[in-house]
Design a protein that fits this description.
Blueprint: H1 2-21, H2 40-45, E1 54-55, H3 66-81, H4 83-106, E2 113-116, H5 119-129, E3 137-141, H6 146-159, E4 162-166, H7 177-186, E5 192-198, H8 210-221, E6 231-235, H9 247-250, E7 254-258, E8 270-274, H10 295-299, H11 307-311, H12 313-323, H13 325-344, E9 349-351, E10 364-368, H14 373-381, E11 385-386, E12 388-389, E13 397-399, H15 407-418
Parallel strand pairs: 1-11, 3-4, 3-5, 5-6, 6-7
Antiparallel strand pairs: 2-8, 7-8, 9-10, 10-13, 12-13
Length: about 425
């Protein structure tokens, strides 16, 4: 039923796209208003997910909802039919549409957004472009992602600056927001130039209190000169599309994310946001092909790429806006809480992700007694449940609900994990 409904929506979208392609002066149309996006069953119908499975690994790679897939097909057809004209006649407007839709969703100005291919690219561009002296240091935590750690290592080798790594908390079972904030601030010294954080840890599902950290860093910076200010960099990929915070409310200086997870944008899409007051601390690495003024334009890497994927980001942000940011957050937290509470009641399961909504988002990590994480995933797959494992030295089984999941599916997942006892 989901496929039938979704394919109808996709066909309708392609019909509109075909008509649009016939017009020479306007390819991209305003995002269609889908009247039934206030109904979660209708939201699910926009995804071409195989209905035989319960999909609980969406943090890896998203299925495209119908408006996004329609936009990809529209742009691909245009580039196939007349690549030169389609590119030169429409690229500037399509990039502007992406940045405007993203800015509207994120609560920022479009000129402050750069478009990238991934979280990793955004991380590397910000850290590589950072203005830092050999006598300064970059502070990170043991729980930040590989891409952040490696980018810091490369930057240190080129500049002579040092990298300091600290644990963010003592025990995932007793972690608190206050502990994380206090630990981070205590790790800052007079030479600290950059602090990095990961909004939601893919290793445990822990959500870091970015806004509270930002408030403390303001106090640290009160008596520092501009070149000695502590800058706050955030890898936000696993909070984007789950949490409804505006980037300005988070208070960080630089925020990077890929958009191919809970945002449902195509593969190879992402962005960097820089706070206007501190943008000058980071300069471009890759020459841009993007016209227009502003830091975001200059930070957008040039080169020929999968344009149909980048341009379809506009429809992904629009789709989320139509569902409603706050409503999406409530739905994902509700499904995640149902999972965490259910798992916490099983004697043969050890839950690592905190139940508190302030300390978690939509990643749930756990162990099943007597089974390796990969074995848990394999056993769930025999019941058509798609899960994943955390790709770290200490690995856990992992479930990541999306807006296309239902409370009934969560109950079925819990039943099969209960049966693993």
């Amino acid at each position: 039923m989901a496929w039938t409904r979704r394919n109808f929506l996709l066909t309708a979208g392609l019909g509109t796209a075909a008509g649009t392609l016939a017009q020479s002066n306007a390819v991209s149309q305003p995002t269609a208003q889908h009247k039934n996006l206030n109904n979660w069953r209708e939201v699910r119908a926009h995804f071409n997910l195989d209905p035989k499975y319960i999909h609980m690994a969406g943090l890896l790679l998203a299925s495209h909802p119908a408006p996004v897939q329609s936009a990809i097909d529209q742009h691909r057809d245009g580039l196939d039919q007349n690549p030169t004209h389609y590119l030169y006649d429409h690229r500037q407007d399509l990039v502007a549409e992406v940045r405007n839709n993203a800015a509207d969703y994120l609560g920022v100005q479009s000129n402050d957004l750069a478009l990238t291919d991934s979280t990793t690219m955004g991380t590397a561009l910000v850290i590589n472009g950072l203005s830092i002296r050999p006598d300064q240091e970059m502070l990170t935590t043991t729980y930040d992602y590989y891409s952040t750690h490696t980018s810091l290592k490369y930057k240190a080798s080129r500049t002579g600056a040092t990298v300091k790594e600290i644990p963010l908390y003592r025990d995932i079972q007793t972690v608190s927001e206050d502990e994380m904030v206090e630990t981070l601030v205590k790790g800052i010294g007079p030479k600290t130039r950059l602090v990095t954080a990961t909004w939601v840890h893919s290793s445990t599902g822990l959500k870091v209190p970015i806004a509270k950290m930002s408030e403390q860093l303001k106090q640290v910076n009160q008596n520092r000169s501009e070149e000695d200010q502590v800058l706050f960099f955030v890898d936000g990929v696993h909070g984007l599309g789950v949490e409804d915070d505006a980037l300005t409310d988070l208070g960080c200086d630089f925020f990077v994310a890929g958009t191919h997870k809970w945002m449902f944008a195509p593969r190879g899409s992402g962005f960097i946001w820089g706070k206007p007051e501190t943008q000058n601390a980071v300069t471009p690495t890759i020459p841009t092909f993007t016209g227009g003024a502003g830091w975001g334009s200059w930070m957008t890497p040039g080169g020929f790429k999968s344009f149909e994927h980048q341009w379809a980001m506009a429809q992904a942000f629009g789709f989320h806006q139509q569902m409603g940011k706050k409503r999406v957050t409530q739905r994902l937290h509700s499904l995640s809480r149902q999972l965490k509470i259910g798992l916490s009641k099983m004697k043969h399961v050890k839950l690592y992700t905190p139940i508190d909504d302030n300390l978690s988002a939509a990643i749930i990590c756990f162990d099943v007694e007597g089974l390796m994480p990969k074995a848990v995933v394999a056993k769930l797959r025999t019941h058509n449940i798609i899960a994943s494992t955390t790709p770290y030295d200490v690995s856990y089984a992992r479930l990541t609900p999306g807006v296309y999941n239902t409370p009934d599916e969560i109950d079925r997942v819990l039943k099969h994990i209960r049966d693993l006892a």
